[in-house]
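Figure S7 source data.
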Amino acid sequence: MTRFDIITIFPEFFNNFMETGIMGSACKKSLIQIKTHNLRDFTHDRQKTVDDRPFGGGAGMVMKPEPIYEAVTYLKTESPKIDKIILLSPRGALFNQKIADDLSNCKRIVFICGRYEGIDERVSVLCSDMELSIGDYILNGGEVASMVVIESVTRLIPDVLGCEISPETDSFSQKLLEYPQYTRPRTFMGLDVPEILLSGNHFEIEKWRRDQSERITMARRPDLLSDHNLNKEPY
Ligand code: SAM
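Tokens for the predicted S-adenosylmethionine complex:
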């Protein structure tokens, strides 16, 4: 079982996330466990204050270090041992499939979700092992970003997807974008399913799919192909 702990001021964000679809069934089958921790439970004033004005002036509020430090210290007393503490941040390493792969080997990951203008820098120094960004844009908070990371890591955990779906053929797992997919009907609005997919010739179908993947990747994301060996034997 892989456990994800999330430190957030909005634990309710995660209710549907952990009950729905593949994430829901992974939780029910005890393949993963998602535990939210309300940051306000780690404050000691009547207002449950988690933010304060920035030193040096400027707009907005900054998340205080003490409640986050206390939450992380508390989580460290629980088992299993924490493998990674991740601070969600736009200035973090850009999240990708390779990082998802690496994280899928962890048994327990803690996420710290920021809000407001950001988090006191000492949290990064004292509490986190890595900062992760999910893209070059600004969200309101780290909650959605943590869900992105948790969902893509969960897909890689054995038995989560069931044997009929394979994460190895997903886009990015082989540095290629996925080939076009079709289902019934054979003709829709004048557009036919490519003949080869109806041929039953699995070798030729694999070849066609690989060729399509390479063409699409070349056209849309040539950066992915820099260290990919084109024209290899079909997988
Ligand atoms: N002032 C900050 C800046 O310019 O970098 C942005 C703060 S943002 C409004 C509040 C929180 O959302 C951040 O502390 C972080 O936890 C989360 N966040 C926003 N964008 C993110 C991204 N692209 N990836 C990961 N987390 C993000």
